[in-house]
């Protein structure tokens, strides 16, 4: 008969779930270029929106503000979001040039997370180009 062998004790390790943050962005107000602003053809526009980081994720350098439509404005298709901790207010900014032809123009942007998902409320610029 073989001597009895003792099985080694097996430790159980409890793994806490990883905290996953949720992205959110809420429009607060237009800071520059109010809707319906009259501008000259080709005029440079510095559009700024006040927004709140209404999620639980901090916005770091990989968060972007992306134009959703091609629009007739000349400017970057995307730009960095102003860094903001969860719950804080921030300013989103795009620098554009108005279209050359008279008329009413609308363009929209939305925040995009590092994983490529869009989130939060869209922001807009609505102008009237006049000669």
Span from first to last CA? 105 Å
Gross CATH architecture: Sandwich
The geometry reads as: elongated
The first-level CATH class is given as Mainly Beta
Structural commentary:
β7 (103-112) and β8 (118-129) form a beta hairpin. Helix content is 0%, strand content 42%. A five-stranded mixed β-sheet has the order 2-8-7-4-5, with no helix packed on it. It is mainly β and 131 residues long. The chain has strands spanning 26-30, 37-39, 44-52, 64-67, 78-80, 89-97, 103-112, 118-129. It is built from no helices and eight strands. It has a single domain (26-129), classed as Immunoglobulin-like, CATH 2.60.40.10.
Q: What tags apply to this protein structure?
A:
mainly beta, 131 residues, three-stranded antiparallel β-sheet, elongated
Brief summary:
The chain is 0% helix and 42% strand.
What topology emerges from the helices and strands here?
Layout: E1 26-30, E2 37-39, E3 44-52, E4 64-67, E5 78-80, E6 89-97, E7 103-112, E8 118-129
Parallel strand pairs: 2-8
Antiparallel strand pairs: 1-3, 3-6, 4-5, 4-7, 7-8
């Amino acid at each position: 008969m073989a001597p009895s062998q003792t099985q080694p004790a097996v430790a159980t390790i409890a793994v806490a779930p990883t905290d996953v943050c949720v992205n959110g962005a809420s429009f607060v107000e237009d800071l520059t270029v109010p809707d319906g602003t009259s501008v000259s053809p080709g005029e440079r526009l510095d559009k700024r929106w006040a927004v709140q980081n209404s999620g639980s994720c901090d916005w770091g350098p990989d968060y972007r503000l992306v134009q959703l439509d091609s629009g007739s404005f000349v400017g970057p298709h995307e730009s960095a979001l102003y860094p903001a901790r969860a719950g804080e207010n921030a300013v989103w900014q795009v620098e554009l040039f108005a279209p050359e032809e008279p008329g009413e123009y609308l363009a929209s942007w939305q925040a995009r997370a590092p994983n490529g998902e869009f989130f939060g409320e869209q922001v807009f610029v609505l102008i009237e180009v006049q000669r």
